[in-house]
Design brief:
The protein has 2 domains: 61 residues, Roll (SH3 type barrels), CATH 2.30.30; 59 residues, SH3 Domains (SH3 type barrels). 13% of the residues lie in helices and 43% in strands. It contains 1 helix and 14 strands, in the order H-E-E-E-E-E-E-E-E-E-E-E-E-E-E. A hairpin with an 8-residue loop joins strand 9 and strand 10. The longest helix has 22 residues. It is elongated, with a radius of gyration of 22 Å.
Length: 167
């Protein structure tokens, strides 16, 4: 084989061997988007792009804060918080644990999915809890906030898609 074609052939063989791995890295997990996760650590950098070469735009200091994944690029996740702030975090900084954050005014967790049911807890805006399930019960979800389990209307918190049903 002539010497001048060897580098071209070598590059072609490398690309053929690397292409499937490169394609998988760009695609991400293949899980549905958007979806909710939570922050795994007590300090998480939100970057302007998918990589450590991009500047840190924001630092989150609340473990278990719910985040909505809206895009993926390799090991990086583009997320949005409850205020609409968007940026990129590494996959190792998010967890599959479903959490919620209370929005608006004080919210009442009830024993049953009914306005007449006795209260279990009164929650302030910004409180973080666990999302246990959101069956299709007229907009109520089962939650756990600091060991207080009960029912909360999905309009009272952020951390679940509009019509999402979870078990």
């Amino acid at each position: 084989m002539p010497r001048s074609r060897f580098p071209l052939l070598f590059c072609l063989l490398v690309l053929i061997g690397v292409a499937p791995a490169l394609e998988a890295a760009i695609k991400g997990t293949g899980l549905p988007l958007p979806r909710f996760v939570s922050l795994r650590a007590g300090e998480v950098n939100l970057r302007t792009g998918p990589g450590i070469q991009y500047p840190v735009d924001w630092v989150y200091l609340r473990q278990n804060l719910p985040m909505e994944i809206i895009a993926e690029y390799g090991t990086w996740r583009k997320v949005r918080d409850w205020r609409g702030t968007q940026g990129w975090v590494h996959q190792s900084m998010v967890s599959g644990l479903r959490t919620l954050i209370i929005t608006g005014n004080k919210r009442t967790v009830r024993r049953k999915a009914d306005f007449q049911s006795p209260p279990v807890a009164i929650l302030e805006a910004g409180v973080i809890g666990k999302l246990l399930s959101c069956p299709d019960l007229n907009g109520w979800c089962r939650v756990d906030v600091a060991g207080n389990k009960g029912w909360l209307r999905r309009v009272d918190f952020w951390g679940v898609l509009k019509n999402e049903v979870t078990e």
